[in-house]
DNA sequence: AGGGATCCCTGTACGC
DNA sequence: TGCGTACAGGGATCCC
């Protein structure tokens, strides 16, 4: 389940790979990836990358933006979303295609880039940078966790009337970009707040903790190369190391990393939710401070 | 308009 | 052993 730290790890891996040679050939599977207006119609356009040279790799939320310089002038940008099971890999030489390879870029230096996604929840799109940034899904994303627009005050202002559970607000990419189910549970755990509590009950001091722990949790996960519970792999095919540092996610019944009480879990909005009933007790009063 | 429900998709885990 | 089934979940879409 690639979230911001995993996508950032892929971004850094791609940048480190130092691909500079032009794309000799674009190979596409006949499967549709993510369907819908934003994706399927535009998959054909990856052929545009033929003859282009890879340049900078950026990230916005859970999306990768990989720029390719055109032979004449200008550039195309490849937008990549890993969905649930998407993997990006760079192979040093000829490598057989893995099952469910949806895109292979063959570079003139002999290396290949593969996008593999068995569950096909991921998506690809190729367009100009400005076309991508001014349309869905990028245009709808909320602030990056490290941007000045993401603040405790902004969280409070946006959510103080919302009756949604805190966990569900953190999953909303319009509130802040990049958080998925794993880090939503972990952020609530580190902030010491019951993830089921309605946003409207959080006072500014509680939002300050949510804000601070969001940044810390994601930053620490990036420094550990992301979380591999099942599918996630980095550009070299290796696993992340953050799974060992999780406090609550996937640890139902096991001792909380902080107080050793057994971790609780339930399904909320169709998604697994984990918390420590002792460190994240439901407030008895009206407010979470 | 906010937010809940449903669907997409396949590998894995588990029960009988 | 083998088969069937439940489950995992990000985001688009529909709907109230």
CATH hierarchy, class of the largest domain: Alpha Beta
β-strand percent reads 15-25%
Rg computed from alpha carbons, rounded to a whole number of angstroms: 20 Å
User: How many alpha or pi helices?
Assistant: 6
Outline the structure in words.
The chain is an alpha+beta fold and 289 residues long. It has 2 domains: 4-140, N-terminal domain of MutM-like DNA repair proteins, CATH 3.20.190.10; 152-275, Orthogonal Bundle (Helicase, Ruva Protein, domain 3). Helix content is 22%, strand content 21%. It has helices at 4-17, 129-133, 152-159, 166-171, 181-191, 204-223, and strands at residues 23-28, 53-60, 63-69, 75-81, 87-91, 101-107, 112-116, 123-127, 264-268, 271-275. It has a 4-stranded antiparallel beta sheet, covered by helices on one side. A 4-stranded antiparallel beta sheet has the order 2-3-4-8. A two-stranded antiparallel sheet has the order 9-10. A hairpin with a 4-residue loop joins strand 6 (101-107) and strand 7. Helix 5 (181-191) crosses helix 6 (204-223). It is elongated. The two termini are 31 Å apart. The mean pLDDT is 90. The protein binds a DNA duplex (16 and 16 nucleotides) through loops.
């Amino acid at each position: 389940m690639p979230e911001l730290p995993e996508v950032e790890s892929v971004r850094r891996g791609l940048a480190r790979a130092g691909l500079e040679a032009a794309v000799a050939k674009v190979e596409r599977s006949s499967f549709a990836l993510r369907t819908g207006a934003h994706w399927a119609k535009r998959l054909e356009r990856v052929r545009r990358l033929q003859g282009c040279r890879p340049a900078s790799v950026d990230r916005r939320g859970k999306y990768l933006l990989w720029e390719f310089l055109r032979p004449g002038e200008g550039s195309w940008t490849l937008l990549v979303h890993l969905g649930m099971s998407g993997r990006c890999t760079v192979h040093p030489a000829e490598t057989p295609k893995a099952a469910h390879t949806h895109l292979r870029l063959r570079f003139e230096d002999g290396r290949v880039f593969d996008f593999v996604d068995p569950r096909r929840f991921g998506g690809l799109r190729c367009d100009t940078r400005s076309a991508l940034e001014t349309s869905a899904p990028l245009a709808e994303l909320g602030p990056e966790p490290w941007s000045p627009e993401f603040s405790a005050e902004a969280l409070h202002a946006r959510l103080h009337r919302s009756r949604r559970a805190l966990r569900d607000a953190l999953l909303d990419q319009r509130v802040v970009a990049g958080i998925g189910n794993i880090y939503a549970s972990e952020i609530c755990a580190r902030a010491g707040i019951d993830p089921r509590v309605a946003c409207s009950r959080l006072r500014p001091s509680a939002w300050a903790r949510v804000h601070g722990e969001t940044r810390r949790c994601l930053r620490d996960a990036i420094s550990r190369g992301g979380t591999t519970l099942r599918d996630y792999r980095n550009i070299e095919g290796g696993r992340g190391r953050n799974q060992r540092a999780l406090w609550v996610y996937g640890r139902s019944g096991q001792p909380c990393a902080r107080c050793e009480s057994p971790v609780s879990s339930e399904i909320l909005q169709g998604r697994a939710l984990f918390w420590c009933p002792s460190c994240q007790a439901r407030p008895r009063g009206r407010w979470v401070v």
